[in-house]
Amino acid sequence: MNETDILNKMIKESDNVVFFGGAGVSTESGIPDFRSVDGLYSQTYAYPPETILSHTFFEKNPEEFYRFYKNKMLFLGAEPNTAHDKLAKLEAAGKVKAVITQNIDGLHQAAGSRCVLELHGSVHRNYCQKCGKFYTPKDILEAEGIPRCECGGIIKPDVVLYEEGLDMETMEAAVNFIRKADILIIGGTSLAVYPAAGLIDYYRGSKLVLINKTATPADRKADLLISGSIGEIFEKLEVS
């Protein structure tokens, strides 16, 4: 029995699966991650990406922030891939109870997943800092320079920037789902970004599955370790 067969058997015998995913889930949809060889961190800008994507930089230099954000963070043409689609089908089949994601692209919802906890927010929600009016990512993309509300306020994406805290309600819900999960599948994440990476510590079960192309700090904790493309692995999962 190979690793995928074992995973299929585990899922077949469970009705409480929680998935926790990172950038690797969306790279197969054409969205680059931050830390891979081809990711944003490997490219050269006037400022490092982690500086541009900080709360301080947004406040002090919103025009430069948005120049980077529009070019490198908004991928509105991206479509869900096999992993997104299969997770949505597993949820519809009563297997997956929640998808917890570090991604901000909204592709899980686009694929049909309903219970999605977005730890780092979403590019699909944007609000005026002055009056709170909602704007779409298309509004942001089409704005000249700094996107401004009709009231004059600067619009801010509902994404968690460096120096900003995660939404505590979302974190508490994620902890609750993970703590009660029979199977916790972690995929497409290096488990290097905290506090999100610390969520694994709340898992109480004995079916921890790690799927990633490269090694992670939690590999030794895994009950099932699968190295490879998450899309290719999920394509082999059965939905009954």
From TrEMBL:
Active site residues according to the UniProt entry: 120 (proton acceptor)
Q: Where is the Deacetylase sirtuin-type domain?
A: 1-240
Q: How is the cofactor bound?
A: Binds 1 zinc ion per subunit.
Its annotated compartments are: Cytoplasm
Listed binding positions for Zn(2+) are 128, 131, 149, 151
Could you list this entry's UniProt keywords, alphabetically sorted.
Answer: Acyltransferase, Cytoplasm, Metal-binding, NAD, Transferase, Zinc
Concerning InterPro entries, the annotation shows:
DHS-like_NAD/FAD-binding_dom (IPR029035), NAD-dep_sirtuin_deacylases (IPR050134), Sirtuin (IPR003000), Sirtuin_cat_small_dom_sf (IPR026591), Sirtuin_class_U (IPR028628), Ssirtuin_cat_dom (IPR026590)
**Residues at which NAD(+) binds:** 23, 27, 34-35, 102, 104-105, 120, 189-190, 212, 230
Care to name a GO molecular-function term for this sequence?
A: NAD-dependent protein lysine deacetylase activity
**Hey, what's the signal peptide range on this chain?**
none
Q: Give the main EC class.
A: transferase
Give yes or no: UniProt keyword Hydrolase: no
Question: Binding positions for nicotinamide?
Answer: 34, 104-105
The record's section on Pfam families has: SIR2 (PF02146)
Q: Which cofactor does it need?
A: Zn(2+)
Q: Which reaction does it catalyse?
A: N(6)-acetyl-L-lysyl-[protein] + NAD(+) + H2O = 2''-O-acetyl-ADP-D-ribose + nicotinamide + L-lysyl-[protein]
Give EC number(s), comma-separated: 2.3.1.286
Q: What does this protein do?
A: NAD-dependent protein deacetylase which modulates the activities of several enzymes which are inactive in their acetylated form.
HAMAP family in the record, alphabetically? Sirtuin_ClassU
Entry similarity comment: Belongs to the sirtuin family. Class U subfamily.
Designated name of the protein? NAD-dependent protein deacetylase
| Source species of the chain | Brotonthovivens ammoniilytica
Q: What is the lineage of its organism?
A: Bacteria, Bacillati, Bacillota, Clostridia, Lachnospirales
